[in-house]
From TrEMBL:
It comes from the Bacteria. Residues 36-208 form the Metallo-beta-lactamase domain. InterPro entries: LACTB2_WH, Metallo-B-lactamas, RibonucZ/Hydroxyglut_hydro, Sec-metab_biosynth-thioest, WH-like_DNA-bd_sf. Keywords: Hydrolase. The keyword Cell membrane does not apply. SUPFAM superfamilies: Metallo-hydrolase/oxidoreductase. GO terms for molecular function: hydrolase activity. It comes from Alteriqipengyuania halimionae. It holds the Pfam family WHD_BLACT. This is MBL fold metallo-hydrolase.
């Protein structure tokens, strides 16, 4: 996990990052969102799409409206429905009359460790995209890529012109994604990483952190990191059973206390995956090798 860079950050500023893509940073920094949620505007002419409108924050919505200007918003698109990604969709729709198009609605009670993560109950899409569905405007086309794992409804969006992939929280530019059961699923997450590794996208634009200029290299490293965590768990359980807090203490030396809960959920997600594969079993609160 990278350190958050010192201020000033370009919060509220429309930044041109390639000819068809601009970025506006929301004012919601945290240990889980880096400097904040990055909303992307796709299109350089009369028609644009807005990807991950972000939190329902009046300053951020005003910055988006200012960046949109006189362009027609063809679609407000959400990668998933955590509260740092989709709540601004409804007020932005009210300001632009644009349809909300993207991931399926998903609302679950959450005992997760992060205050910004519980699901957005206000999200009501006008159209849900299946894998391979497209949304088009003047000079651009976005294709939905189903990438469950971080959440079961997670989508990435591929920009057909230029090779960019908007990766939401599935692949981020500063940290690995948090996978929180029961909806977050490590088996699905690893399969989705493998799917992205086999694609030929040239750059990733994540919702948090810098652009990823060598995406296959990063994804390969992320897969290796998760496999290393698996090996750590199996090595520890080979000696004696452990409860999740004990595994976290052994596996994450010097971890920021604010991130201990998230680490525990990640370990739980790995254990569930390993249990499905017959490599570990539960013994009350403890886990052991099978």
């Amino acid at each position: 996990m990278a350190d958050i860079p010192p201020k000033p950050w370009p919060t509220g500023t429309s930044e041109q990052i390639e000819p068809l893509v601009r970025r506006v940073l929301a004012p919601n920094p945290s240990p889980y969102t880096y400097t904040g949620t990055q909303t992307y505007l796709v299109g350089d002419g009369a028609e644009i799409a807005v990807i991950d409108p972000g939190p329902d924050d009046s300053d951020h919505i005003a910055a988006l409206v200012d960046a949109i200007g006189k362009a027609k918003v063809v679609a407000i698109m959400c990668t998933h429905t955590h509260r740092d990604h989709s709540p601004a969709a409804i007020p932005l729709k009210a300001r632009t009359d644009a349809p909300i198009i993207g991931c399926a609605p998903l609302v679950l009670d959450s005992d997760g460790p992060r205050a910004d993560a519980p699901f957005d109950a206000s999200y009501v899409p006008d159209q849900v995209l299946a894998d391979g569905d497209t949304v088009s405007g003047a000079g651009w086309t976005l294709t939905a890529v189903h990438t469950p794992g971080h959440t079961s409804n997670h989508l990435c969006f591929a920009l057909n012109e230029g090779g960019a992939l908007f990766t939401g929280d599935h692949v981020m530019g500063w940290s690995t994604s948090v996978v929180i059961p029961p909806d977050g699923d490590m088996t699905d997450y690893m399969a989705s990483l493998d799917r992205l590794y086999r694609r030929e996208d040239t750059v990733y634009y994540p919702a948090h952190g810098p652009a990823i200029e060598k995406p296959q290299q990063l994804v390969r490293g992320m897969i290796g990191h998760r496999r290393q965590r698996e090996r750590q768990i199996l090595k520890l359980l080979a000696h004696e059973p452990h409860a999740i807090p004990e595994l976290v203490a052994r596996m994450y030396k010097g971890l920021d206390e604010r991130l201990v809960g998230a680490a525990g959920k990640s370990v739980e997600a790995h254990l569930i995956d390993l249990e499905r594969r017959g490599e570990v079993a539960r013994d009350g609160e403890a886990w052991r090798s099978s």
